[in-house]
Design goal:
Helices cover about 35% and strands about 25% of the residues. The chain is an alpha/beta fold. The protein folds into three domains: about 100 residues, 3-Layer(aba) Sandwich (UDP-N-acetylmuramoyl-L-alanine:D-glutamate ligase); about 110 residues, Ribokinase (UDP-N-acetylmuramoyl-L-alanine:D-glutamate ligase), CATH 3.40.1190.20; about 100 residues, no CATH class. The longest helix has 17 residues. The protein starts with a strand and ends in an 8-residue tail after the last helix. Belongs to the carbohydrate kinase PfkB family. Keywords: Kinase, Transferase.
Length: about 350
């Protein structure tokens, strides 16, 4: 059954070096629209949900273009308003083989970052919503965006709207202002029903270390600590990535639930990766779709992983995969030409 899902975050323009070039190796940049929460909204809209975006953009051609791109992909942009400031940007140089990709943020003084937290009427914006999706990128942008994200999560909790939170820790963004990430993030985890996070995110928030002989054991131990600290939290979900080179990965996923469930997928082998950006957002959208469609936890996890795998094959920030394509990956039947 389609759900009404509200996503709150900044709309960005990505300026990428062509192919695998370094930034400005040649005088050209390819432009696409993105942003963590916008990526989730687009992916959910492709899967049939009523996805709405709450954001602020500048009143100029760049703001118009970003909003228009979300609208073109089926996202409700009625709650995207204009404000003083500039368009948020980031620059990408996609790596290859053993040269890592590089992201440069240019988001200071953006319209979204400058918008007052008091300017969002959350009871009205969340009226009729089934779920609110937030990420750790938004509070990393400054005190106002942090306050706005916390207010949104608290109003959602009071109104009975489920809260999805993706940790998405971005150290470069937090370092740009006088921030205290654990204090801020702890308030968002406290309102979440589902958190997309691994043991490192949880250790940061709780100020505790976890032990275990494997990555999976550390994630499970950290999840148990998080369930003890945050009574509303029901599920911790994360991808598990092993990188052999920039364009050859193994990708799996894991979910730990408050009732004691632990689910671990098998890994997919990803070679000749086209674009890694937005794959975590495609994963989150896929898991949320699965859970809202009454899939079992294990099936929802597998659906999210398949969605993430597909996103690796698609350039740009957005995942445009539909349910049939994702299920074909799950079934191992996705390679034949569709005629």
């Amino acid at each position: 059954m389609p759900k009404n899902i509200v996503c709150f975050g900044e709309l960005l323009l990505r300026l990428g070096a062509p192919g695998h070039e370094r930034l400005l190796q040649t005088p050209r940049l390819d432009v696409v629209v993105g942003g963590a929460e916008a990526n989730v909204a687009v992916a959910l809209a492709q899967l049939g949900h009523a996805a709405a975006m709450v954001s602020v953009v500048p009143d100029n051609a760049l703001g118009v273009a970003t909003v228009g791109e979300l609208r073109r992909h089926g996202v409700d942009v009625a709650a995207v308003h204009t404000g003083a400031g500039r368009q948020g940007l980031y620059f990408l140089a996609t790596g290859a083989m053993h040269r890592a990709s590089e992201v440069l943020y240019d988001r200071a003084q953006s319209a979204f970052a400058l918008a007052s937290a008091s300017g969002y009427d959350w009871p009205r914006l969340l009226a009729g919503a089934d779920l609110l999706h937030l990420s750790g990128v938004t509070p990393a942008l400054g005190a106002e965006t942090a306050a706005a994200a916390i207010a949104a999560a608290r109003v959602a909790r009071t109104a009975g709207v489920q809260v999805s939170f993706d940790g998405n820790y971005r150290a470069k963004l937090w370092a740009a202002w006088d921030s205290d990430p654990p204090v801020v993030l702890r308030q968002l985890f406290a309102e979440a029903d589902i958190a997309f996070a691994d043991h490192r995110d949880i250790e940061l928030v709780l100020g505790q270390t976890t032990s275990g002989d494997s990555r999976e054991q550390r994630i499970e131990a950290a999840a148990r600590q998080a369930f003890g600290a945050f009574p509303h939290l029901q599920r911790i979900v994360t991808t598990l990535r092993t990188q052999h080179s920039v364009d050859h990965h193994e990708l799996g996923a894991m979910m730990v639930t408050r009732d004691g469930g632990v689910h671990r997928t098998t890994d997919y082998t990803l070679t000749a990766i086209v674009d890694r950006i937005g794959t975590g957002d495609a994963f989150a959208a896929g898991v949320l779709h699965g859970l809202s469609s009454a899939m079992t936890d294990a099936d929802a996890l597998h659906f999210g992983l398949a969605a993430a795998c597909l996103k690796h094959s698609e350039p740009g920030d957005f995942s445009r995969a539909n349910q049939m394509e994702i299920e074909a990956v799950m079934a191992g039947t996705g390679f034949d030409v569709r005629r």
